[in-house]
Amino acid sequence: MNIATRLKRRLRSLFRRDDVESDLSEEIALHLDMETEDLVRQGRSREAARREARIRLGGIDKTKEDCRDARGIRLLENLLRDARYGIRGLAHTPGFTAVLSLAVGIGANTAIFSVVNGVLLKPLPFPNADRLLSVSHSAAGVNVDDLASAPFLYFTEREQNRVFEDVALWSVSSAGVTGNGEPEQVTRLLATAGFLKVLRVKPAIGRSFSEKEDTPAGRPTVILMHGYWQRRFGGDPAVIGKRIIVNEESSEIIGVMPAGFRFLNFSRLDMILPYRIDRGRVAAGGYGVRGIARLKPGITVEQAMSDVRRLIGIAKSSWPLPPGISRQQLERLRLGPRLAPLKQSVVGDVGKTLWILMGTIGMVLLIACANVANLLMVRTTGRQQELTVRAALGASWPRIAGELLTESAVLALAGALVGLGVAYGSLRLVLALGANNLPRLEEIAIDRSVLVFTAGVSILAGLLFGLMPVARYARPRLAEALRLGGRSVSANRERLHVRNVLVVVQVALALVLLIGAGLMIRTFQELNSVSTGFTGRDELQAVRVYISNRVAPDPDAAVRREQEVRDKIAALPGVTAAAFASYIPLQGDVITQHGLTPEGLREGDRPRVRDYKLISPEYIATMGIRLAAGRNIDWTDVYQKRPVVMISENLARLEWGGASRALGKRLRTGAAVDQWREIVGIVADVHDTGVREPANTMIYYPALVERIFSQPLWATRSVGFVIRSSRTGTDGFIADVRKAVSSVNPVIPLTNVRTVRDGFEASMSRTSFSLVMLGIAAGMALLLGVIGIYGIISYAVSQRTREVGIRIALGAKASEVRALFVRQGLVLACAGLVAGLAVAGALTRWMSSLLYEVSPLDLPTWVGVSVVLILAAAAASYVPSRRATGVDPVDALRAE
C-alpha cells in the first residue's frame, strides 16, 4: 500500500471520528517533505521533486473534499435525528407546558411589536416621507409653544424660502352637502394647490387643483376621497365632471384619491377642496391653519429652522397689519419657527406609551424563558445518567451540546408557531382596546417585519433557556452520574441552586409588572374621580348641525335657526333640557382660542391666549355646570348684542385673583377695534378636552357677538347641541332628534351623534388601554411565577421523599412537614420580592407619563402588590406540601 492510499484512509478515519481537519495537516506535510527529500537525493531539482511528490500524493485534496461532504451530510443527519427526538419530547408534559409558556411570551411580544412597528417604525406612506415637515410656529411672548401658521407666513415661506421644495397650508372642517339626495355633513380637507405636490400623491382618477383654482376667482372644484366616492357615487368613474353642492356652492368633481390615501390621523375625510385664499386681503395675522413642507435633498431640519426664522422677520415687515393691531403688539408675540417631522404629528405622544408596553411584554417573555429553562433543567437532570454513559462510550461534548441545543431550538420553533396564533388573537384584542386612541391603525398588521422579529425573538429565547442545561449537563461526570442512581442521596443542592435562582428571577419580574398594573389601577381610579365640571354625563347626548347660507343668509338669522332647532329638540318626549354651543366638552372638537386683553393691561404687558366658545343661554344649566358667581347669559343679551361674557373660575383666579374680584371687570380680544365686554358670571371649571388635561381657562360669549375678531357681527354656523334626556344613546331617540332638526329645514344635516359618556370614555382610552395591557402582562407574569414556585416545591417534595418518611416515622406532625416546604417557597418569594422592589424602584419612574395624580412610588400599591405576591407564593407552596404529608414512611423507606 503506497503512502497516498494510507493517507486517504487516515483522513477518512479522522473525519469519521469527528477530529479536526487541522490535526491531519502536519502528517500530510511531513509525508510530502519526506517524499520530496527522497527525490532530491535521487538527483532531481527541488522544484521538480516537489511537483513529483505532490503527484505521488495526488488525490488528497479530492479525498478531503469528499470527507467534508460526508461530514456535512452526517451533521445534517444528526441534526434531523436530534430534531425528531426533540419533537417526540414535546408530547411529554414538560415539553407541552414549555411550548405553551413560550407561545404566550412570543405571541404577546409579536402582537405588541406589530403595533409598535405599524405606529412608530414604519415610514409614512408617501415617497421620501422623511423629508416631510409639519410647519407651525411659536409665540414666546404669549407663552404659546405651538401656534398654527397663517397665510401671510405661508406666502412668504412659499415664495422666498431656500430650503423647501414645496410648501402648503391645510385645515380640516365640516361642510354641508346638499342637492344630491338626503343632506349630509361631511369632513373636508381645505388645502392650497401645492398640498398633493408636497405629499407626492396624485388622484387615482382625474387631476389635482391648479394654481388658478386655488384663488377666489377660480371656479369651485372638489376632489373626492375614495371612501366617499364609493359610498355616495357607487365608485362610478363617470363622476369626473359632475357637480355637487358644498356649503351652498356648486363645485365640479375633478378627481378621486387612491383607496389607500390617509392624511395624519383623520380616518374619516370625505373630500379635498382648494383653500382659495384672497392674497390681496391677507394681513399679518389670521393664525389657525396648519402648514406642511417638503425639504430639499440634503437640507437638515436645523437649516430649515434657520431659514424660516429669517422669513418670519421678512413677513412681519412686508404685510399690512389687521385692524386694531399695532406693530409693537406683533413684535411682542416673538414669533419663532417650529418645524417637526410630519410623522411626529401623526404619532403624537403615544410613542412612549407603546415603548413602555413593549418593555413590559418583554418581561413576560423573560419570565417564560426562565420557566422553560427550569423545565428543561428538570428534564435534563433525569437524563444525566444517559448523557454520562454516552460520553463514556465516546460521544463528544459538542455532540451532546448540539443535541440539547437542537431540542431547545425545536421548543422555540414550536413556541413561535403557536405564538403566531396567539399574536393574531392578541392583536385583535389590542386593536379593539386602542381603536379610539391609536394612530395609523390601518398600518398595524402581522407583516414581513413582524415575522422577522418573531424569528429573532424565538432564536434569542431558544438560546436563553437552552444554554443553561447545556452549561450544566453537556459535560457529564461519570462519578456523579453513578451517585444519582444510589439510595444515599435525597437532594442535590448544587442542582437546585440554579433552579432556585430562576424562580427568584421570575418572581422579581412578576412583581415589577404587578406594581406597574397596580399603579395604572390607581391612575384609573383617580381619573374616574376627577370632576369634569358638569353633572350627569350618562344623560347627555351630543349632536352637531350646520346652518348654511341657504338656510340663514346672515349671522343673526343663523342663530335664530339654531334656537328654533333647540326648541324643537327640547319639546321631544323625555328631554329635560337642550342647548347649543360652538363645541361640546369631550367630543374631540378643536378648541378655539384668542388673545385676551384684560382691562387695565399696562403697556408692555403680554396678552394671554385663552379658550373661548359661543353658547346659548340654556347651555350652563343643560350641562349642569355650577354658577359660582353673578348671573347667566339670557336671550336678551344675545339678540340685543349686549357686550357681556361669562368666564371660568380658574380664569378669574389667574387674571383677577378670584371670582368675586372678576365680576364687573372688562376684557376684549387682542384687536384694539374689538369691543370691551363686561364679565357678568363666573362658572365652575370644565374639562373640555379630557379628564387628563387641565380644566380649560374659558370665556363664554353669547351665541351672537358684535364687534369681535375685527368683524361687525359674529356667529358660528357649525354648532354642537347637547341634550339632557333619559333616552340618551337609543336609536329611537336619535331618530326623533333627526326628525326635529329636519322639521326646521330638511337640508340641515345632522352629524357627530355621540353621547358625552362616549367622549368621557374616549378621553380615558389611553389609560384604559395601558391598564388592560399591563394587567394582562402582570397576570401572565404572576401565573408563571406561581407555576415556577409550585414546580420547585413539587421537585423538592419528590427528592425528599425518604427524608419526609423518616420525619413522619419519628413523629413529625403533618403541619410541621407542610411548613417545611411552604417556608422554602416563601424564602424564594421573599428573595424575588426584594430583588423586584429594587428593580421596580428604578423602572417605574419611566411610567410617570402614564400616571395621573399617582406617584411611581405609591406606598399602598407597593404594599398591596407585595402582599398579593406573598399570598400567591404561599398558596403555590402549600398545594405540593400537602402531597408530602401523605407519604407512607414504610413505602418511602422501601422505595429507597
Q: What can you see in these coordinates?
A:
The chain is an alpha+beta fold. It is built from 29 helices and 24 strands. A 6-stranded mixed beta barrel has the order 3-4-9-6-8-7. A 6-stranded mixed beta barrel has the order 14-15-20-17-19-18. The longest helix has 38 residues, at 397-434. The chain starts with a helix and ends with a helix.
What would a concise description of this structure say?
The protein has 896 residues and is an alpha+beta fold. The protein is built from 29 helices and 24 strands. The longest helix has 38 residues, at 397-434.
Which secondary-structure class do the elements indicate?
Answer: alpha+beta
Q: Work out the helicity level.
A: 40-55%
Question: Strand-residue fraction?
Answer: 15-25%
Largest beta sheet: what is the strand line-up? 3-4-9-6-8-7
How many beta-strand runs?
A: 24
Assign an overall shape: globular
Mean pLDDT: 80
Main beta sheet: 6 strands, mixed, barrel
> Whole-Å distance between the termini?
60 Å
Give me the number of helical elements.
Answer: 29
Taking pLDDT < 50 over at least 5 consecutive residues as the criterion, the unreliable ranges are: 14-24, 484-491
Radius of gyration: 38 Å
